Amino acid sequence: MSTLVLAGCGPGPLAEAEGSRLTIDEAAHLIFGHSTMPGDTQVVRAVAELWVDYTLLATRLRDDTTLSSLDVDLAARAALDQMMLGRLREEAVPVDTVVGDEELAARFAADMPGARATASQILLLFPRGATSRQRDSVRVMADGLRTRLEAGADFATLAERHSDDPGSGPRGGSLGTFARGQMLAEVDEAVFRLSPGELSHPVETELGYHLLRLDALEVPALSEVADEFRRRIRQERIAKAEAAYIARLDTASGLALTEDAIEVVRALAAAPPSRLSRGAARRPLLTWTGGTYSVGDFAQLFEYTLVDFADGVETASDDELEAALRRLGHEALLLEDARSRGLAPTEAEADSVGEEVRAAIRSLARAIGLLPHAEQAPDDGGAARDAAPDSPVRAAAAAAPATVAELVEAALIRVVSGEREIVPLGTVTFLLRNRSAWRIHDKRIEATVARIAEVPSP
Q1: Which of its termini does the chain have fewer beta carbons within 10 Å around, N or C?
Q2: Residue among 361, 372, 371, 362 at smallest CA distance from 428
Q3: Nearest to 350, CA basis, from 69, 86, 77
Q4: Quick check: pTM over 0.90?
C-alpha cells in the first residue's frame, strides 16, 4: 500500500478535519489508483465525505479510546424515548393479547393468511379523465362480457380480444399466482372471496372494471401458520389500541399545524440552513396546549437522518407532509405524557444506554478498520490483542498502520477498491461533525476530477 505523501501539493485541500488535510492530489491519486468506478464528481464527493468522517472518528479514538468525552445524548435519545414509550404502552394502553383458538379459526377462515391464488382477468380501462357517462359505458361493456362468459364464451378468447391489460390480455387474461396483498385492494378482496372456477361481477378500481376468475387456490393448514397469525392479530390489537389512545391525546391537547408549517418544511428541505438563528429555531410548526414542535426540532432531522430525507420531503404531497408532521407531534405528546406519569429513564439507565452507543461506535470503527492497532489491527477479529507476544499475528499487528492518516487511507482504499462495503455511520456522522472542526471545499471537487484525468498511468 502506497502512503499518501503529497500533503501540501496542489492548489489547496479538498477537505479538512481536526487539523488534517486531504489535498486534491491525494484524493486524485487514491481514486485513480484504487477506484473501480470512474473518478466523477459523485465519487470525489463520496471520498471527501468518508475521509472527513473517518478522520474525525479515528482522531477521536486516538485521543480517547473509550469515547467517554463524546456527547452521545442525541444518539441515545431515540433508545431512551422508546424505553419511555414502551413503559407508557404497558401502563396506559392495556391490550387483551389472548387470542383463543375459536377466534383464531374464525379469523383464519376470513383472512386466509398465507393463501395463494391463481387467477385471470379481463380489464376494461376508463378513458383518461373519464366522465360519469364514460365510466357507466365501460360498466355496460363489462356486464355484457360477463353475460357472454356465463353463456359459455371462452374466457381466454375474450381476454385476448377485449382486455386492456397489456400484461395479462395477450396471455388469455392470466394473472399467474400471487399471495394476498399483492394486487390492488379491490382485486385482492374479490379474488380471495371466489371459489375455484367462479367468475366475479365487474370489480371497479381506479383503473377501470375487472372481470375476475379464480382458477386455483392454495390455502395452508391453520397449524402451519397459527403462531405467526396469532402474533399478527395481537399486533393489530396493540396498533388499534395505540391509535385510539393517540386520537384521544390529539383531541384533548388541541394539536394543530401552524398556518405556514408545510411551506416552512418545504423551504427547509430545498435549502437546509447550516445554522438557524435562535428565533428561527423556536418558530413553531405544531402547537398544542402547553407545548410546541419547532423548526429547530425538525431541522435536526436533516442533520442526522438518512441522506435522502430532504428528497422525501420535497417529493411528498401536502397531505403526506401534514400526516408526517402530525406523527412527530403525536410522538412528542406521548413522551410528555410518559414524563408526567414518572416513566422517564433513570440517570443510571441513561448512562447505560450511552455506554451501549459508545460500544456500538467502537464496533463500527473496528468494522471500518479505524481502531489503533494497539486496540485491534483491522480485520483480525481481536486476535492481535490476545495473541502471544512473539506470535505472527502480533507481529502483523505491529506492522499495521498506526497513525490516523494511515488508518484512514487504508480504510478508504478498501472502500474505493470494492474490497469492502461502506459501513453506514448514520447518526455517528452528526455526533462527530457537530462538535468538530471540518470542511469540504465544494469548489475543489471539479478540480479533483480534472486532476484524476492528469494522473499518469503507472
Answers
A1: C
A2: 361
A3: 77
A4: no
Helix 41-63, helix 445-454: angle, nearest 10 = 100
Please name the residue that has the C-alpha cell 480534472: 450
DSSP secondary structure code for residue 341 in this structure: T
CA 311 to CA 301: how far, in whole Å? 13
pLDDT score, position 433: 87
Question: What are the CA-CA distances from residue 262 to residues 86, 281, 284, 315, 324 (Å)?
Answer: 30, 16, 12, 13, 10
Angle at 161 between CA 159 and CA 162, to 5 degrees: 70
Instruction: Output the furthest CA–CA distance in the chain (Å, rounded).
Output: 90
- By the 8 A CB rule, do 192 and 180 touch? yes
- 170: DSSP letter: G
Residues 417, 350: Cα–Cα separation, whole Å: 40
- DSSP assignment letter at 342: T
Identify residue 288 by its one-letter amino acid code: W
Residue-level pLDDT at 86: 92
pLDDT along the chain (458 residues), means of 10: 38 90 94 88 94 95 92 89 93 87 88 91 95 95 96 96 95 95 93 95 96 94 89 90 94 95 88 75 94 89 61 84 93 95 96 95 94 54 47 46 87 93 86 88 93 79
The CA angle 379-382-383, to the nearest 5 degrees, is 95
pLDDT at 1: 35
How many angstroms separate the first and last alpha carbons of the chain?
14
Write b or e for each residue in 133-158: b if 16 or more Cβ atoms lie within 10 A of its Cβ, otherwise e. eeeeebbebbeebbeebeeeeebeeb
Dihedral sign, Cα of residue 429, residue 432, residue 433, residue 439: negative
Q: How many residues does the chain have?
A: 458
